[in-house]
Amino acid sequence: MMEIGTSWHDWKKTLGKAVNAAELAGMSDETINQAAYRMGNFFAANFDPGNREQRLLKELWEVGAEDEKKSLAKMIAKLVDRDTSH
User: Fold this and answer.
1) Has residue 6 been placed in a domain?
2) What is the number of structural domains in the chain?
3) Cβ of 85: how many Cβ atoms within 10 Å?
4) CB 1, CB 48: distance < 8 Å
5) Does residue 11 form part of some domain?
6) CB atoms within 10 A of CB 55
7) What is the span of the domain harbouring residue 62?
8) What is the dihedral of CA 43, 15, 73, 56, to 10 degrees?
9) In a domain, 13, yes or no
10) Pfam families, alphabetically (predicted)?
11) How far apart are CA 52 and CA 9, in angstroms?
12) Which residues does 85 contact at the CB level (< 8 Å), separation at least 6?
């Protein structure tokens, strides 16, 4: 398993840039949320969290039902979008 070694701030900034790029490309919120859900599955299966915030997200992901994971992915997308919009 690979480790994500960036800080929480840098991780959110990188994800925020990806969400902003998707919005500029004309992707709908639903499409962005679906991509965030798929990325969440990929990260949870393939990466070891590099900080405590990422560890918490991974643990929430692991215990969540599919609909809860989709909600978590949507909230993360909104969080990082909000942070990069300011």
Assistant:
1) no
2) 1
3) 10
4) yes
5) no
6) 12
7) 29-86
8) 60
9) no
10) DUF3243
11) 12
12) 20
